[in-house]
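The protein record filed below.
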Amino acid sequence: MASDEIHIVLSPLDYIPPRNYVRLLFPIPLNPGVDEKVVFDDLREALHKTFVQEPWVSGRVFRQSPDTPGWRPGQLEIRHRLYQPDGPRPYQLKYQRLDTDWTYAELRDAGFPSGIFDEQLLLDAPRVGEVDLAGAQIFVGQANFLEGGLLLGMTFVHAATDAMAMLNIQKLWAENFRELHERDAGGKIAPSRFTATDNDRSLPERLWQRETGGRGPSRNPDDPWLKGLACLDSDYPGDVDVTGATQRAAAAAAKVNHTTNGDVKPTTNGIDKPTTNGSHHPSRTMLNRVMFLSSEDLSALGKECALEPLPPGASPLSISDTINAIFWRGVMRARSAAATARSTPLDPISVFESPINVRNAFAADFPPDYLGNCFLLNTARMPLAELIAPSTPLGRIAQALRQGAAGVDGGAVHDAYALLRSTPDLSCVQGRFVERPESADLLLSNVIALPMSEIKFGGRYFGNGGTPHALRVLHGPYAPDVRLGHVLPRNPKHGGVELSVNLFEDEMVYLDADEEFGRYLVTIEP
């Protein structure tokens, strides 16, 4: 192993997400007459500067070698080298001209519906990150051009970073793009705006030690809600063989050749692909729909949820609580009806998981721009029959969600971290929604507050100041084996919210027929 290779041991918080690739698509309009090849070259040059500023983004995630001091089963690490300003430009960004009759203006007028293009066509990335041999590439991007616009795809392996940090890296990339011909003209590279503290994966451990004195959980470590926060309640067995094949694979990974910029030599397209799609449902098709909730309907939804009186001392409901409530009920009604029709009824208890950013709760001085994962999974449990019953008020469901979210304070965060750091096998950390598609569980990633307006690639080549018109999540081959959805960023102009829903074909028909769900949400269709 080369001595100039840098190893960054991942924090216990980096095991909360699975090693999947969170594939995001950002539609951005092009100015008339712009040469898309020039735009792509500048995008790649700006990404190169981003890699120089934050070289770990150009690296890969590996399983740590068992002979590393402090190793324990499941331990992962980032490996990279310093990225040289005069080195090769990134292979991680691909160019594609889409073969389509659709124009950007037509897509925008239609609301950027899902299903127009094959998701793998828009962003060719693995289902999950392979960490034993070649390593999981941290960043993968693809610039898809069509008449009048760009569909910019990017993804990070989730083990390396969370949604807030992904957005921060994209903002840095956009800033470098804006400044290519201004501040950074002549090949200059500005310092990264992120600090050494933002990049310090050992920071959560130090702050936890400081805040708690190193004590164990103050709550019962067997409390299902606390274990759910730390993704330790799914009885996931972890890696089957952590001493034999895993050790041999980790040792082999240490011998893989690297390029001068610290990356594993790429395959033909720079991406390591799985040999199969891994789906447990080869005969069933997973569909994605984008639904729209207008500002007026969001207000009406809040009023309906408010009809259920709050228990004494309960926290008031948030907008996210009400959205999550109708999503949870509508999706589980559809899944339950389809499962009954297949004579395979679901579990009697439904568990709802939702990521919560805990940077503010971890410590008062925890950096808001920390670039690692820093979220936990709030859970709510409800009998499935009660959840889907018309007699159950939506407000009661929203209150169950608020009860869990309100409990995620500094003490709960420290207790969950204590459970994580004491886990003997980190590969056992797994959300309930992963690889259990026939369960009654659901994860809803709510990013309603992500500040999309802060992504600005500038007006040299782009309309709208280079700010994306929307955000779309591409699930691709990962979707059939997980149960998840997304609440997308709220539009600051009209106040509406979009939701991304994944269901199998036989389930989607029941969602389409759900009167309550349809009263508030409208499908965005071509």
